## 1
Amino acid sequence: MNTYELIKKKRDGLALSRQEIDYLINSFTDGSIPDYQMAAFLMSVYFKGMDARECTDLTLSIVNSGATMDLSPIEGFKIDKHSTGGVGDKTSLVLSPLVTSCGVAVPKMSGRELGHTGGTIDKLESIPGMRTDFSNDQFVDITNRVRMSIIGQTQSLAPADKLIYALRNVTATVDAIPLIASSIMSKKLAAGADGIVLDVKTGVGAFTPHFADAVELAKTMVGIGVGAGKKITALITGMEQPLGRAIGNAVEVREAIDTLNGKGPADLRELVLALGSEMLLLSGVAQSRQAAKEKLKAQLVNNAAAAQFKAFLKAQGGQAEVVDNTELLPTSRVVIPVEAVGSGFVQGINAFEVGMATKILGAGRQTKADNIDLSIGILLKKKVGDSVERGECLAHLFSDGDEAKAKPATKRLLEAYTISPKAVTPPRLVLARVTSDSFEELT
């Protein structure tokens, strides 16, 4: 095949065959196609798009560029959840043990922070002793013993995706829907679950801030999953303000444990129940969303989900006692109150700005090799719709005491808040559902 001709074909808006896509991906992965030609191809996709069949073929080609996880030794139906990334999104820490406590296996591979959003692996590593670096056999063994495991993404899965993403990142092609969808789904398919529930974020703190783009992305990913023979559903959820009140690592683990113990914030609980209901439906454990939700609520009330989290922590070397005593988690040197400069009602909290404030404070990396202080973070005392008086505390900053970081973080956090004289209603959280055969906006 001729790379030039394939670039030209896509540039002219024509569909590529599975064999042509395989050739491009395999040749780029083994170094036969130079960066500049792959960059031209990616730009052609950015402007001309791909149809549903091409998106599936592209994803499967990326999957087949490396190893795949064999989860067949894990007993029963295996379900996974993926979030496109949000601020304060500690959902997996609550959702995985909750769904597992209902009898479903949840083997999960997760990542670290990306941009202004946090990563599940970083959060878990704030638990003393916690390990996330297990082999495939160990991953399977832990899941069979405690019905869940969360480990870091391995370098051998979908290597073509890493090469392509690095090129997208420097050629202004990151936000092409076919390329976003194939990147996400290649890793999910390579991870080997039977079913997948997607949490596609939209709003100022999401990578797809516009609702229409989030819908397109959700439909594309669901189409890829169906084309690959998976059971799959996507929820489109709001990310205008941070999820919950905690943003950071140890502070988010603390909030996740509070939720498992029945004391967490209402929006985090709402999202967990919505995503968990879809997971139980796909798994066949429940026959309706209402039945699934009631089952999940019962597992929170009877502490079964908290007990499951303890078993998971113990299996992966973590200090399970943190579930009963969150004071065992890392604590910051300094707590800085951030006071409101006006009175009224919180009209908005820019999730992106809060994520960046947390990163400036020291909870995120400036370079890939950086170590992060897992105790650092932000705890919001006021959310959208809350009343506030001038001088009242809007948030607490958990700091290492470095004023050079604390001052700009405080400024950015204050700028993230909009205070209005009129009362406002908090934004809806769960906005729409996409399945293999339907799209439904939720009210």
Note: Residues 87 and 117 are 5 Å apart (CA to CA).
## 2
Amino acid sequence: MNLLRSEWIKLWSVRTTWTMLGIGLLAEALFAGLYVGLAPLDEIGSLEQVETGTGLLLVLSLVLGVLIVTTEFRHGTASSTFLVTPRRWPVLMAKLAVALGVGLLAGLAFVLVNGGLALPLLESREGSLPAAGDIASVYAGVVVSLGLICAFGYGVGTIVRNQVGAILAAIAFFFILSPLPELLPGSIGDYFPAQAIGSLHGTEGDNLGQIAGGLVLSAWVLGLVTIGTALVCRRDVSE
């Protein structure tokens, strides 16, 4: 519990966390307001307005997950951090829990901003609101995806401990390689992280379904965290 509290304080005591989340939520408010407020009603899909603006917040959550672990190595504080306990893995699990937690909080903040702006604005324009169950499903998917994407970034950071390299690797894996599945045979591409997020949101592709999409993304996170934890526990922190 003390480790978890310590990692939580570390995260929220730096301006980077507040700045990144603030930018993401501000962008979400702008996107939601402009899209829902200006786009022709017949161009607004049944659920598109619900998750308008999630792209930047997803990227920032991914980067924030990377920073949770790589900052320790960049500033040389990893040695003192890992001296707190006889074993390193409890510290890493505390960092993972913080990554999941801040991602979920970002998702809940997104729901408050989006639900408080986009939906009333659409209703004021006399547009047809999606069914309440559909809205709740998409919002739940967004919240879960932000938690998992932050944990995904954390996993990449434990493997690629260089901060810049880890950020580039995490972003490249999601966005540069995201078109690759279209070239693969069958449904193999549905199991890439970016495609799993689309299914988890329930609005893009949705080839796997929300639950399956969430499980696939969770499997990616579990694999990265397992490999990263093993590497950090075996390697010298000064490498």
Note: The longest helix spans residues 89-124.
## 3
Amino acid sequence: MSMSVLRVGSRDLELVAEALDKQLQKARGLLGEMPIVLEFAIPEIAVDKLLDVFAERRLPVVAAFRTHASLEAAIRHAGLPVIREQGGTRPPRADPVEADSAPVESEAAVAAEPQEPAPAGAARQRIVTTPVRSGQRLYARGGDLIVMAAVGAGAEVIADGCVHIYGSLRGRAIAGAQGDESARIFCRDLQAEILAVAGRYKVADDIPDAMRGQAVQVRLDGERLCIDSL
């Protein structure tokens, strides 16, 4: 079961709430009541009050990840488990100025691999030639994601631009992750669990049977998510 990770980088709860509301607005229901794991880039925050911010938005927080030692007692007192990486490593102390400049970062941004800046005028894209297996999550920041193989059930592929899948799509595909309504999803064999473009989405039960196993494109027509044969 995959869960979203939200990176908290400010101790200002109003700033966190504002950034979280913007993220929810972009998602347009995709994050509704989705389990959340919190990653803390700061050494201190009012954990109980922070959890109230998420509870008010019906976002259940189930654990903390990569926490500072100074926060562990408060996190455990709030009833949350602390997930550790192998080796028990912790992040370095965050600079307060840098932390306040990025109050909440979505899991997709946290999970992305570093990418070199694209040359001026060039389209940014990420090309993956191997299958995307269950539990994996790939993100193309600022451009398209091109998968030359299959996306397995339980896997997730995300792009700020379009998503192209040249094998079977059995997992989740999200295009226009930052709100680009012109983004599209293209795949040769549709068997998806979730399809989403700019926050509008369909789950498996909403996908017409006639489209399953077909080569399709997924696009927005106003507020409606459309699935067309290719």
Note: Residues 87-122 have pLDDT under 50 and may be disordered.
